[in-house]
Amino acid sequence: MSGLNATKFLSVVLLSSSMLSANLTVYAQETSTAQLSSQIQSSTAVTDGTSEITSSTVSQDTKPSSSSAETKTSNAGDSKLSAVKSYDTVRYNGKTVQLERQSKGVPYHTPTNLNDYTQGTMGSTLKPNALVKAGVSGIPVTDKTRPRADVIDVSSYQGSLSVADFQHMKSNGVQAILVKLTEGTSYVNPFAKSQVENAKAAGLNVGAYHFSWFTDQSSAEAEADFFAGKAREYGLSENTVMINDVENPAVNNGYATQNSIYFALRLINGGFKTVVHYSSVSWFDSGILNASLLDKDSIWVAQYPNNPLASNLLNTDYGAWQWASDLTFPNISGKEFDVSIDYAGYLSNSGNVPNTQAKPVIVRYVNQSDNSSIQSETSLNGKLGENYVVSPPPIQGYSYRSSDSNLIGRFTETEQTVTLYYQKESQPKGTTAVSVSSDQNTVTATFTPSEGEENIASVSFPTWSQQDSSKKNWYSATKQANGTWTAQIPVSDFGKSGNYSIHTYATTNSGKLVGVASGSFTISTPNIHYQVENVDNINGSFDVIVKNTVANNLKSVSIPAWADSKQADLVWYNATKQPDGSFKATIKASEHGNRTGHYNFHIYTVTDSGISVNVSTAGTEVKMDKVNDGSVTLSSLEDTITLDASLTNLGFKPSNVQMAIWGDKDGQNDLKWVTLNSTGSGKYQATDSILSHKETGLYHAHLYYAYNGKLYGVKAMTFSVSDTSYTIKNTVLDKAKGTWKTTIILNKAPFGVDYVKIPTWSKSDQSDITWSNARKISENIYEYEDSISNHQGNRGRYSIHVYLYDKLGNLKGMTSPGIDL
User: Fold this and answer.
1) 269-287: per-residue pLDDT in tens?
2) Residue 75: is it exposed, middle or buried by C-beta count within 10 angstroms (0-12/13-18/19+)?
3) How many CA atoms lie within 13 A of 187 on its CB side?
4) Radius of gyration of the chain (CA)
5) CATH topology of domain 725-820
6) Superfamily of segment(s) 628-721
7) How far is residue 12's CA from residue 322's CA, in Å, rounded to a whole number?
8) CATH architecture of structural domain 528-620
9) pTM beyond cutoff 0.70
10) Does domain 12-20+107-341 have CATH number 3.20.20.80?
């Protein structure tokens, strides 16, 4: 315990032998500490039994083996468990505990060169994990803001200490000294004898500790004998607290718990009454040592906070707390000491007989104003050295304020008194003011106490709509610097207008809920005002402007509009919020099939606080002046369309006139915008080729004009384009000569004609067939003249087919009636 001085604080525990009682079976496996912890817990055997040490064996497999190979144990190099385990049954701490015999382990050895510079001291292996105190170095024992200095531990590092040194420690509140005696089976603190004798001469209690190296039962008992021998040699009695410092990594071989118990039993059987085991808390957390055997009253925790204070004692539920490693004394220069506060009285009551009943702690309850009793005294009872905790109870009509001493202490041989001071509670009274924000979104409730302000622990405002009292919300107030209590109440929590009730409740310091005020407030119903603006009788549109005249708090506005009596053209418009807080939606006749006449629309609003108000309106009239028109004309073959627009009464010249053309098939995949050119007097015209759209059937044409950067729709039209069709006519020119003419007459050719092929034959096996190209005679006439001389001079019936290919590569074939020659 020579001081922890690295970068993290470390918890170190001391556990007495009286707590080592259960869960001790540990496997000697090469395994992780987490696995060890699991194995320790699952392998425990604790029963009632005798005080003698007996032996037993337990088979790991209950099935009968079929061969010797099934029951063989692991070889010397195998770290797994053997098939049969052996146990020692020991009586320890009033219970019978089975300890697994150690089959093997790390061979026992201690360094042969141990000396005052290579020795281990309590905490020496733990220092790298300690926390360096920030800004606190060399704590003087005279600093009474620090915790008590009950116990100091010393070793050869402190060297020679005189009786006067120890008397100086005692005069500064030190009650006990813990002296390192031995290490392993060879090292002895050369100053131990004088440190023990001088501490005793100064009237201090003395305990002793041993730095352990044991790895099995025999070495544990050998070290215990070495330790005990030196203790007796130095005149330490059987009541001396004997500490096993078990932090050496060599001890961590999977049997640290068993071997620590063997060490303790050796000392106890040798006559010593109290054995304490010391180690890092991490050894217990990981299962190297079995933490489940511990009682917090028997744990000694070392934890070095940045600024240890008597007003902020840590680890009070443990037996003791080592709170610093650098305590200094004004008359002992150049030396620093580990220091502990001994909650359980391990060393500060070293001579006490265990389990002796202590004197009671009397608890008084008084009125702090006149010291009069407000409740009968109570008493706490316990054993010497045990901790007591006084918890101030709530007393009706009073609030706890303070005590005349520490509420946590230790039972002693003398009666102690703790006085708890209470203040009589005055009934809270006051008024509550309620205000509603201008946007009707937030209500502010403010309670101003007039009496009993000091007795108010908290304030709440239950609030509900008078229309629906089933929904009551409670709002916690916050105390302000001026003593008032304020809460913000979102109106959105209720989502409705109307009258509200609000009450005020104060919770007193004793936890009593007291009604202190009541009130009300009103959330106004939104007054939705609308007007129709920007009526456009040319394009058939108008704007609807919506406002809340009560508060500028509209969150959303939706407007359904329709002109058809059956609402077949119903369209919902989401209005857009304007800079002034109003909302605007533009209703367009083009969204309603360009219907004119009366338009109906309703208004649906929602405020920021979630209040909904719906308004039915009278609607408005929509006109679209018939000054604009358009038409689409197909050519005879329907391969070309002529687009016409009449924009004669606009009153201005459009910057552009266009038609959007597309076939109905597959949507607007063939959409084409065609610009119309002015022909004068408000007339516009253009042509378009059906070939560019590549489809027949229904077509759409929409007429638009542009003005001042805005595009206006004028008219929506449809037209149809037929598929390619034609007729065939065969005419005899000279029967004697055997000549004739085939004429192809186009009816419709939307994609034009690329060429026409005519196969002709008379033989059934087509042995006299010829393929000929027809020639174009006019826009819709193709002809081909033929003769029997082209067909081997054959007479009879001729078959004639026609294959027409358009400019898209599509084939349209037909069979003619034929001709007789």
Assistant:
1) 999 988 888 877 677 777 8
2) exposed
3) 25
4) 53
5) Immunoglobulin-like (2.60.40)
6) Immunoglobulins (2.60.40.10)
7) 8
8) Sandwich (2.60)
9) no
10) yes
